[in-house]
Amino acid sequence: MSPTSIGLAGTPTRLRSWIHGSLRYDLPASLVVFLVAVPLSLGIAAASNAPVAAGLIAAVVGGVVAGLLGGSPLQVTGPAAGLTVVVAELVSRYGWAATCAITVAAGLLQVGFGLCRIARTALALSPAIVHGMLAGIGVTIVLGQLHVLLGGEPGSTPMRNLLDLPAQLATRHDHAALIGLTVIGLLVLWPRLPRPVRRIPGPLVAVTLATLAAVVWNDVDLARVEMPGSLLAAVHLPVLPDRDWLAVAAAVLTVAVIASVESLLSATAVDRLAADRASPDVPGQGGPPGQPGPHGYGPSRPSNLDREMIGQGVANSVSGLLGGLPVTGVIVRSSTNVNAGARTRGSAVLHGVWVLLFAVLLVVLVERIPMAALAGLLVVVGLQLVKISDIRRVRRHRELTVYVVTALGVVVFNLLEGVLIGLVLAVVLILRRVVWAKVHAERVRAGPTGREHWSVHVEGTLSFLAVPRLSVVLGRVPPGSTVDLELVTDFLDHAAFDHLDGWVRQHETTGGRVHLDEVGPAALRGDHPRPPRRIHALVPPRWFSPWSSWQARHPGHPDGAGDPNRADQSEAVHAALRPLHVGVREYHRRSAARLRPFLTGLDGRHEPYSFFLTCADARIVPNVITSSGPGDLFTVRNIGNLIPTDHVAESSVAAALSYAVEVLCVPALLVCGHSGCGAMQGLLGGRGEEESHVGRWLRWGRPSLDTWRAGHPVGLAAAGDGRTEVDQLAMVNVARQVGVLREFLAARDVDAAKVSVQGMFFDIQTGLLLVLDERRQRFTSPPDQELEITGAGFVRP
């Protein structure tokens, strides 16, 4: 790697810039993180059955090495609770020196991951598995440390600890149990204390008070932290394992994968925390969104996950060489770092320096800490790995089973087997969701002729796996009934197609009727081209698709009213209303629940972004062509999108316009014409001279006709673009109505600077919505740089 690739190019310049810019932010943040890291590092080392000094070595190496080389500037690296179970098992199996060698190899493997640029692949692991793994580790830590807290010794497995716990609780407890419970109580109470008090890290306060209590009692039987004289004395070279190389390779892979996944998940979480905190107004905190800060490491700059993987790998290799624990990016220390105001990676590096000075100069204080205090700290840390928010999240995504099975697998078996069990279950559930269709049948009502009416809904991928269940559901439909069969399917395999097609033919042969409604791209009948392969596409909502595309093949009445052999007038009326009834049912079935939260927010509030005048032509759907929704447009429609110019006369257009401007105070007035307008055709054909309802209305369009014939620039530009006379007149009409709107505002003394007026033209053939450029006197596509996108997705000039 080159110096530039690891961020060392121009180091003296960067250092001077950091000292003068961000040091005042990073220094206090590093002290806060240091105070949190020391007790956690000691406790994690104790829980891992490793030398206590190994936790401090890992904290130093993680802070300095990963802090300098990693790709997540604000992430803090150190020994993590997520690896305690793995490390404890490795220590009991191979010994501590061989475990250090495994850590070195795992670090080199992580470096390889980073160089291959596969860091983001680790994020493909289901969050339910990751959170379940952490929860299982948390339960394992709690079960083991409860024995230490109560003055006993933990068993070899979590299940043994669980079985021995009642007997441990029944025995007589001494000062160790009191100290451990006091630490737990303080840590639980600490987040509820006033903010000024909570600025001091809770773990530091709890361990300090527990240590002072142990000194006062001076209980000789109280187990304390054991240090080998100094931190330097704990440094030693690793030793290669002497047996079972296949198992060693599996251990290396396990440590590398878990450390990588935990670090990358932590890095992405830190990015979110930094983005929430980032503000361009804060000195040294980065500039505009997406740009690095003044030192190249502003929090607005996202983590480089491949570089972070390399940094973590180098840190693990160095930690293992020096006799330290494996390290990962730790969200507890990282979130503390962000919340304390850190600006650059200097905070993580300084925190490692403080840990080193503490371990070298104040080793006597470390040896005063009772093991029960660290056990109480670890019990709380273990419980915090079982997060209620994670459980709610995976339950919302229907992955609670994966979470629970993974956690139980880690507790009952071991970490690797538990993760593998969770992974297999997740894959099985995903396959089930992919290939398992939803089939539902219900009796709607009995028709006027006594014929039963049923509704059968099939949704998803209909494969041979769903045929048995499909057969059971269809078997409940009585012969001779009318059936609405709705297929919302993206794929029909041969077996499912044959079964469904055979059932439809058999049901119709026995006197029943089947109204087939094919929503998805996979078709059952020949009038839909059946896709030769699976189609991975979203089915558009029915209310967005033209009705003719999905209702054209529906019979008129569900009980046979649409039969062409029956000409009863009432049945014909029912047939005419059926598309509306089907559409309303479709809205209730698919759209009402999704729309309800938006409508609830609009209850009692009517603040549209614009007054939108357009033609009554059914081909114009204002909310679709403007990508807007409920509450955005105050829409008025009439034939030809005309505005009567006689202000004395009362008209619905004038009333709506006055209400929009004077009551709703809309910021924009829009008038939209369209191609092939029937009103413009009527004007050109002389219908504006007729004494009829349509003719009298079209007289309001005569000024537009006269303006077009006089050679209006908009009409000439449209003619130059090859537009028909009808479209030329429609465009001129829009331009003239824009002028009428401005006259309307002037007549009511409305400040023109507060209300925008815009002309628009919808080309039905191309589906393009053009806007009137009054400076150039022609309709063009809206320039992106002159548009403002509102929160509702509505485009306004």
UniProtKB/TrEMBL annotation:
Name one matching Pfam family.
Answer: Sulfate_transp
Record field: transmembrane: 27-47, 54-74, 94-116, 128-150, 175-193, 200-217, 245-265, 348-365, 371-388, 400-431
Domain named SLC26A/SulP transporter is located at 23-274, 304-405
Keywords of the record, alphabetical order, are: Membrane, Transmembrane, Transmembrane helix
Q: Where is this region: Disordered?
A: 277-303
Asked whether the UniProt record includes Transmembrane helix among its keywords, one would answer yes
The membrane-topology field of this record reads:
Multi-pass membrane protein
The answer, when asked if Transmembrane is one of the entry's keywords, is yes
What ranges does the record list as Gly residues composition bias? 284-296
Where found, per UniProt?
A: Membrane
Question: What's the stated role of this polypeptide?
Answer: Catalyzes the reversible hydration of carbon dioxide to form bicarbonate.
* Family affiliation: Belongs to the beta-class carbonic anhydrase family.
Q: What is this protein called?
A: Carbonic anhydrase
